[in-house]
Amino acid sequence: MYSGSKPWVLELHGRSVYLYEVPHRSSHDPLGMDRLLTCGAALEHVVLAVRAAGWHAKIVFPHDHANPDLVAVVKADRREPPRPDELRQHRATTFHEGTGDGEARDLVTANHWAGTELHPVDDGTLVVVTVGDGRADHVRGGAALQGAVLAARSAGMRVRPVVHLMHRQQWRAGLVERHGLAGFPQAVLVVGAKDPDGAGPTAASSGAAHS
After folding, report:
1. What is the 3-state secondary structure (H, E, C) of the chain?
2. Closest CA to 104 of 174, 182, 186, 196
3. CA distance 98 to 100
4. Contact 139, 40 (CB under 8 A)
5. Which is it for strands 159-162 and 184-191: parallel, antiparallel or unpaired?
6. pLDDT (tens digit, 9 = 90+) per residue, 148-204?
7. Using one digit for the tens of pLDDT, what is the confidence trace for 124-164?
8. Which among 158, 10, 132 is positioned nearest to 70, based on CA atoms?
9. C-beta of residue 211 within 8 angstroms of C-beta of residue 128
């Protein structure tokens, strides 16, 4: 999703993983939304790794004004066997992009993040929606998006995240109005080769966003 250098750093402390944002000013991402979505993708990978190792993952989003770059802490707090879908998504972190087609609604159940929704607006388009529009919401949205990407890879489906359109407030507002979304759109996931032309009031420009 993020076109610059890796915008996050991980630190391991015992059975806890600390995820830090690496701030970077960009004219293409003035509010840091893309950066936080990418941090969310990294968070999804951390959680899946903890689950695949047989631990329950407790996720904390700290409000530490003395350490504002700390995005999240994942604690392996007790033993818990992973679910089959979690193992499939974790294995998919090493897979190449899929080549097959599929339907957007098949990826909805890949999301496990509270306060987020993977909302299909047509057969080939999912919108990542969050209840709020703050920093933690962007991170959760990125994690939900990455969960859907990994589920698609596991199923051999090709998908393309599109986040750059969310910088256009008119397009974002039109997306909410057109589809009656109950929340804040953070990203679009296109399933197959199509562009999200029908997702908002203006046509999407082409351009991949890499996870």
Report:
1. CCCCCCCEEEEEECCEEEEEECCCCCCCCCCCHHHHHHHHHHHHHHHHHHHHCCEEEEEECCCCCCCCCEEEEEEEEEECCCCHHHHHHHHHHHCCCCCECCCHHHHHHHCCCCCEEEEEEECCEEEEEECCCCHHHHHHHHHHHHHHHHHHHHCCECEEEECHHHHCHHHHHHHHHHHCCCCEEEEEEEECCCCCHHHCCCCCCCCCCCC
2. 196
3. 6
4. yes
5. antiparallel
6. 999 999 999 999 999 988 888 899 999 999 999 999 999 999 998 666 554 443 333
7. 999 999 999 999 999 999 999 999 999 999 999 999 999 98
8. 10
9. no
User: What residue has token string 């949205």?
Assistant: 141
Tokens of 86: 């979690």
Structure tokens at 63: 């409000």
